[in-house]
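Input record, target 12 of the design panel.
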């Protein structure tokens, strides 16, 4: 799940400098190497759309599934065709969770199910029969009200104030030149990760199952995939659209017992999944690592690899002298299977790679990490459904993308570098952040959360840049490539390719900033993030 522990708001005026400093370049390459990417030499919008549509053809890609394996094979072939790239991989053995069939009948009538809750307990093909009970979110699930019953529960919505993303709290710099963000407002979205607590509480209470009801219609949540811990739940669970949920609630409101049969037929299948590493050598073996995950349910969830392909093609076209540092592209597994190596470690493949890079950092083998997620995510607004229908529906905003959060580890030069390139490429609605969790001066780093794949790298005290957004369409494959604003994705892709280009000659002391001191603090016993 995305880890966001947020703190309260503060108002500050927006300041955007009129001019930007040119990125630093090593003296010997100043006359021959580009300071920024020539857009004419980078993938067009049409090319990025073609890649997103090709990605969509693979379908939903849970970790280790055949579709996921096929997608990783395709990425490996694409990146392997880039001149000079060296390929290796990190394999992991897992027990993949497979949905063999999910269904629901209520009082003998079939009710549409949008999706099973991933990693649910299997009922087998015969299902489990039990009475239904509706428990609002304000009511705790206990043995007294849930034992032996199938619990009907509303999915929570999370609301976040916009002011959090401005200085001096989480924010370092906000780039919103058209003033499209209401600084005093907030944004909210459905939080299917909340099903995790419900299923655990239901299991502890002896419930027979859980039905999680969305505020959105069936068509918009069909195939929804969350939470994605990779650990088995002890009860079966499934998601329902708002209409199906209302149908059940109305039946229960009549006061008579309502019997249901919930079927979540699932199996655990031993399989192998892998992280693919593609290394493009530079003058120095010290590497900049560019990372994104490959398992996801929709193109917007993991379009980072598409940008990485085009970034690699561009960088490989330059003379080796224009790559002062080696660049390694990491196509990581385990995002939808966070306990990749067992129940005691929750970081997925990103955490496994971060631990390896942490060990290499003090040997001078690693410079920094750039993690790419959800670039160009189109903004969808949750609005009332027409015709008096219950709940909400997601409608695309024709003009806006979602706010792009860019947490950057504790280096002022690194944050300034990101700020400059974001503005130069006009990547609007971007917040350069100190982190996505409250500061704790008693730990190193001070901000433990980066909102997604960047979190473990930051926690391992690696200089990290980690753009990510929170699109309302994220968890559902019902929204395909149309959920990406390709023009915005291209601007962001250019900006982060500029950043990787500029990281090449940047002095490591500037890249690291306070990370160097924090690593020494950690070695002396200062606690890290838990």
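The sequence produced for target 12 reads:
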């Amino acid at each position: 799940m995305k880890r966001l522990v947020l703190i309260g708001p503060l108002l500050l005026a927006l300041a955007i400098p009129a001019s930007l400093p040119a990125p630093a370049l090593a003296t010997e390459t100043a006359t021959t190497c580009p300071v920024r990417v020539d857009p004419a030499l980078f993938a067009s919008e049409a090319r990025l759309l073609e890649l997103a549509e090709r990605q969509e053809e693979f379908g939903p890609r849970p970790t280790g599934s055949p579709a996921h394996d096929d997608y990783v094979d395709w990425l490996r072939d694409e990146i392997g065709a880039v001149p000079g790239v060296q390929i290796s991989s990190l394999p992991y053995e897992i027990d993949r969770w497979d949905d063999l069939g999910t269904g629901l009948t209520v009082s003998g009538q079939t009710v549409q199910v949008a999706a099973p809750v991933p990693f649910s307990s299997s009922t087998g093909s015969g299902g489990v029969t039990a009475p239904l009970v509706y428990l609002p979110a304000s009511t705790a699930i206990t043995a007294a009200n849930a034992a032996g019953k199938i619990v009907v529960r509303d999915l929570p919505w999370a609301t976040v104030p916009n002011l959090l993303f401005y200085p001096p709290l989480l924010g370092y710099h906000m780039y919103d030149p058209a003033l499209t963000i209401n600084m005093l407002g907030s944004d909210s979205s459905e939080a299917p990760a909340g099903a995790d607590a419900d299923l655990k509480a239901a299991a502890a209470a002896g419930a027979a199952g859980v039905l999680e009801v969305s505020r959105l219609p069936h068509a918009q949540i069909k195939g929804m995939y969350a939470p994605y811990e990779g650990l088995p739940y002890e009860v079966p669970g499934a998601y329902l659209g708002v209409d199906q949920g209302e149908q059940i609630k109305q039946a229960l409101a009549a006061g008579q017992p309502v019997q249901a049969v919930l079927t979540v037929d699932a199996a655990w299948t031993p399989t192998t999944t892998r992280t693919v590493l593609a290394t493009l050598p530079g003058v120095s073996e010290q590497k900049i690592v560019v990372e994104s995950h490959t398992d996801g349910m929709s193109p917007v969830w993991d379009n980072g690899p598409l940008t990485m392909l085009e970034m690699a093609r561009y960088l490989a076209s330059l003379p080796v002298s224009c790559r002062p540092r080696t660049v390694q592209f990491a196509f990581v597994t385990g995002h939808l299977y966070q306990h990749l190596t067992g129940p005691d470690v929750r970081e997925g493949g990103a955490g496994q790679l971060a631990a390896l890079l942490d060990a290499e950092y003090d040997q001078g083998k690693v410079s920094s990490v750039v993690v790419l997620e959800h670039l160009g995510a189109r903004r969808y607004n949750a609005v009332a459904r027409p015709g008096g229908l219950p709940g909400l529906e997601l409608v695309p905003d024709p003009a806006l993308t979602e706010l792009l959060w860019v947490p950057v580890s504790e280096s002022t030069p690194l944050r300034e570098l990101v700020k400059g390139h974001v503005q130069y490429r006009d990547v609007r609605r971007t917040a350069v952040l100190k982190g996505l969790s409250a500061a704790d001066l008693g730990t190193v780093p001070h901000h433990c959360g980066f909102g997604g794949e960047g979190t473990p790298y930051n926690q391992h005290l690696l200089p990290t840049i980690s753009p990510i957004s929170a699109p309302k369409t994220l968890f559902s494959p019902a929204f395909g490539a149309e959920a990406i604003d390709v023009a915005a994705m291209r601007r962001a892709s250019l900006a982060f390719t500029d950043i990787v280009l500029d990281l090449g000659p940047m002095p490591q002391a500037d890249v690291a900033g306070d990370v160097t001191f924090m690593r020494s603090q950690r070695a002396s016993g200062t606690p890290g993030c838990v």
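The first helix runs from residue 45 to 57.
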